[in-house]
Design a protein that fits this description.
The protein is α/β, with parallel strands linked by helices. It has one domain: P-loop containing nucleotide triphosphate hydrolases (Rossmann fold, 3-Layer(aba) Sandwich). About 50% of the residues lie in helices and about 15% in strands. A 5-stranded parallel beta sheet has the order 2-3-1-4-5. It is globular, with a radius of gyration of 15 Å.
């Protein structure tokens, strides 16, 4: 089984992934953005610098390719997707793998924004609150295609990926 954690920036994907990493011996846990940077970010100090240099189109192609590699893996995996990884192209890829389940971390925009507002490592934060709200509203319908939806209250109770089967 492959669980794909999705949600807007600041929804808690990385935090949940860290919790899962500590509480499972069955699942391998990865962050998609980190994996892209490991593969393609040589010579750059950060993912943000990589994106600024190579551009968003290049990054999105790498993101889609790396996601597909994980989907083809036979390992039990939890993969935290970047906030923009849930695009029409990637949703189609995900739906093609019956062992993949998207898990939507449903977090209100105001909470997400509060968590990311001062984070200089997130290139899109520079857009400002209004543009981020537009982006949030644009992405939510794609996140809602997930098979599993978790509220903040549910997230607090889940300790391991094995518990996702019960959600």
């Amino acid at each position: 089984m492959i669980y794909l954690l999705c949600g807007f920036m600041g929804s808690g994907k990385s935090t949940l992934l860290k919790k899962f990493s500590k509480n499972t011996n069955t699942y391998q846990c990865f962050d998609l953005d980190e994996e892209i940077f490991k593969k393609a970010g040589q010579g750059f100090k950060s993912l943000a610098e990589f994106i600024e240099s190579k551009g968003w189109d290049h990054f999105r192609r790498r993101e889609s390719e790396t996601l597909e590699e994980f989907l083809k893996s036979s390992h039990d995996t939890v993969l935290a997707l970047g906030g923009g990884a849930v695009s029409g192209v990637n949703v189609a890829k995900i739906k093609g793998f019956k062992e993949a389940r998207m898990v939507y971390l449903n977090c209100p925009f105001e909470v997400c924004f509060e968590r990311i507002a001062d984070d200089k490592s997130r290139p899109l934060v520079k857009l400002g609150k209004e543009k981020l709200l537009d982006l949030y509203n644009e992405r939510v319908p794609l996140y809602e295609l997930a098979q599993i939806h978790l509220s903040s209250e549910q997230l607090a109770k889940i300790e391991s990926p094995e518990q996702l089967l019960q959600s």
